[in-house]
Amino acid sequence: MNTSSDNSTGLIRSLIEYIDEQSFLAGHGSKIVFGSILAVFGITAYIQSEKYSKYKKSKRISTSSSSAYKESTAKLNKSRKYGHWIPDYEFHTPVPPAYKDWDLKKTKPLPYRAFRHKYAVNMGIRNMEWDNWIELDNEWEKFHNHKVERIEEKGTELYGTAPEAMEAAYELLDEFWQYLPNRYPSLFKQTEYGLDNLLTGEVHKFKLGFRTEDDPMKIAAKMVQDDLAIMIEDEEGTYYLKGGAIILAGFWRLKDKFNMPLSMIHTSGDVPKYKEKLKTGMEKFFIRQTCDKPVVRNNYFIQTDDNLPWSTSIGSEDKPDVGWYTAQPATTAEQLFFRSERQSLRRLPKTGAIIFTIRTYFLPITQLAEEPYVPRRLLNGMSTWDDDVQEYKGWDKYKDAIVPYLEMKALEQEARGLTAESVPDKYPY
Ligand code: HEM
């Protein structure tokens, strides 16, 4: 892998060769040789002073994306040879403040309601605030217990790290080492060997010099509620799923997608309009994403059973083929659950890997429909799904249960004056 110091040495070497060649051709003897030596010394001194000022900057913890960062390694990486990321030692993820009044028992999951009156297929990415990279709440214990149980039961079907993602996986853990105890100090304690979990007593060892045989993605999975994926760029600029802990994904399995490129991950799952509306934008986005510009996106699904880790109604997790076509139609609203993911994407500075986090929010439709304005908006949103979206999201298997129910709840709310015209300006989408 290239490094910036390799680049500087290479530059000096080429200059010496160039000057040697010029002096030989011009035949100007010792004057030119002396001039050349001076020039080389001058350039070396300049590079050293640049390196020193970069080093000085790297000692400061940045709290936002600094202009120095944008102009240096980021610029070099813009024109990198694909698959050869130049480690960015200048970029430091901003250290978050402690989450205000965060309480493992009391802090509720955030109410993402990522549906609009009209459904549209698009990337739907927004800038992410660094402080909110990983969201933990009073469901942490439930998620953690599911994860621990499932890892016991299914082991490496659920997590894994290819050799080419190993460095990135440890870099992710180093990022957690900084982020988690600062953001959630009542749950994590930073140690010289890694992190201690103050609730479960788990001791996570992963810092250099303290690493164990444990897969780094398995260690990472036990800290957060999210599923995690590592995408690595190859020499054509294609991104591959090379590491992951996909433990509570509901509808897809790591073992089916491991080592796949981004496009095949999506086409193999028949993601609607992927080729027409998503592929080009996504591939460009992955190549261009810089370390200082993390993003998030949200989605939603309806599930016809209440199993967070794996939606059993689409078939057993252990069967080769699963899908909506095997599901029994739901007949009551009580059978229906709202499943919504908050996904984040960020590039790690040292390895250049892209980290994809997937946090699931899961609640009964009957609970969701009590929220003001929600039943009408969700109903309208789903009614504008195209045929391919309907098929992908299993519409036929629950439409007869959900449509009359949401219509009834919407009418009830509208009779109380909660109409489209009275929607408040700020709604927690
Ligand atoms: C800008 C980034 C991305 C965009 C815009 C995107 C978009 C989508 C969309 C639109 C879907 C259909 C479900 C939904 O509405 O969310 C989907 C499904 C999926 N995406 Fe992505 N995605 C992105 C990144 C990734 C990454 C990095 C992975 C790597 C693991 C991934 C894995 C999947 C999987 C496994 C599915 C389900 C496919 C199936 O049903 O088999 N996505 N994605």
UniProtKB/TrEMBL annotation:
InterPro entries: HODM_asu-like
Name of the protein in question: HRQ family protein 1
Organism: [Candida] anglica
